């Protein structure tokens, strides 16, 4: 899996748009970019996945430049309930044991304030 | 959407006893499930990959004889923590890969294990 780098923390206010950028300089041709959200004491929850350009779903948007060496998760109009840790993962989806470890980094702790 | 469940959600056991945690994919078949462990204020760490019908693959540093994994069906994987000790107290989370969606990982709600 490609190594990823994210900011450790971010602060925002309710109603603002939040953009979290992840760097993955060593992304491979077959790798997808996936973002997860985790609340305290809960399992990480899938948010969005993309390969290139832009992907949008009911929760977020994912922007991926042409070189795919970074990606930006965009959360529109955040609320207090969006306070969580956000993880960026890059891999081919075959997270099989030592051949392709699904390893979470520290993620980005987003704090949304009223 | 896809749902992955875990049971129990919380368990307290005495040191030296064994605890079994179940992970189920409720509306899809998962040939592969993953088990993670998360210590307080740390990231999830992959412990092992559970493959239906075959032996689990363990990550380096994870004792296979201590953390027994069984994936007997396409919808159920179990993790048994044998001879638990207080240092095994942690948050255990499983995930299931959905084959028809590029193995997109659906995570369970987690199990909080406390060993006294």
Task: Give a quick summary of the entry.
The complex is a heterodimer of chains A (114) and B (116). With 114 residues, chain A is mostly beta strands. Chain A is built from no helices and nine strands.
How would you portray this structure in words?
- The complex is a heterodimer of chains A (114) and B (116).
- Chain A has 114 residues and is mainly β.
- Chain A is built from no helices and 9 strands.
- The radius of gyration of chain A is 14 Å and the shape is globular.
- Chain B has 116 residues and is mostly beta strands.
- In chain B, 0% of the residues lie in helices and 53% in strands.
- Chain B has no helices and 11 strands.
- Chain B has strands at 4-7, 10-13, 19-25, 32-38, 45-51, 57-58, 67-73, 76-81, 90-98, 104-107, 111-115.
- In chain B, strands 2, 4, 5, 6, 9, 10 and 11 form a 7-stranded mixed β-sheet that branches.
- The N and C termini of chain B lie far apart (37 Å).
- The model of chain B has no long low-confidence stretch (mean pLDDT 86).
- At the A-B interface, β3 and β4 of A face β4, β5, β6, β9 and β10 of B.
Q: What radius of gyration of chain A results from the CA coordinates? A: 14 Å
Q: State the helix count of chain A.
A: 0
Order of helices and strands of chain A: EEEEEEEEE
Low-confidence residue ranges of chain A: 94-103
- Note the main sheet of chain A: 5 strands, mixed
Specify the overall morphology of chain B: globular
Sheet with the most strands: spatial strand order of chain A: 1-9-8-3-4
Q: What's the average pLDDT of chain A?
A: 84
Proportion of residues in extended strands of chain A: over 45%
